[in-house]
Amino acid sequence: MFDILYILKAIPMMLDSFAYTVLVVIESLLLCFMLAIPITAVRIKKVPVLSQFCGLWLSFIRSMPGMLELFIAYFVLPGLLKGIHIDTSGWPATVYVLIAMMFHYIPYLSEILRPAYLSVDKGQHEAAAAIGMTGLQTFRRIIAAQTLPVALPQLCNTAIDIVKDTSLLFTIGVIDLMGKAKLIITDTYGIRKMETYIAVAIFYWILTAVVSNLFKLGENYFKKYKLSTGIKLQGGGK
């Protein structure tokens, strides 16, 4: 018989794993975004060899299930690194999680940032150069302020995709939300599976709502200063 009170009992049991999931989401977003910027620059400048490599990388990860990438990072990468005398025996599982997230999402984010950057009128670059701004100053003060509003909706979708992809982490033994749910179900001999999974769903719902609203605040900030944002997409950013 369905027991709604068990959901309320299970929620406090998952708070630690929820905090870990939030940490993974934040770290993944920051690392992927920062590393996507130089990849975007390579694609925009069409740097020989590197640009083609980035295009191949994007094509490759589009055909790869997220779980397979996680397994490659966790089970295959240590062996490859051992071959070049890098000891990974002390690495926590979170490192492999972040490697898998970066491998998957950096090309996606670069493909969001690249058209957003190219949408800025070239006259903006010329005007900045005419008044003596360096390339870095032009990007920081003028271009970035116009690129980010265009990219923001799709960045939001990608952030939500990252939140949902954390549900795979339990497959390598990480005690995230799904990992904690598995432990709870095992301890109760599977009697309260439905209630446990509903409690997990509530956490993911809350986290997704928080992410969406944070990006919405960003959109409202740019609208306040009359900087246009891109068209809001429905569903995931993949």
* Major β-sheet annotation: none
> Would you tell me the overall average pLDDT?
86
| CATH H-level superfamily title | MetI-like
CATH architecture: Orthogonal Bundle
Task: From the 3D structure, determine the CATH topology.
Answer: MetI-like fold
Mind telling me the C-alpha Rg? Answer: 21 Å
Tally of distinct domains? 1
Regions with little confidence, pLDDT below 50 for 5+ residues: 229-238
The class by helix and strand makeup works out as: mainly alpha
The amount of beta strand, in percent, is: under 5%
Question: What would you say about this model in short?
Answer:
The protein is mainly α and 238 residues long. It is built from 9 helices and no strands.
What does this structure look like?
The chain has 238 residues and is an all-alpha fold. It has a single domain, classed as Orthogonal Bundle (MetI-like fold). It is built from 9 helices and no strands. It is flat and about 70 Å long. The chain starts with a helix and ends in a 14-residue tail after the last helix.
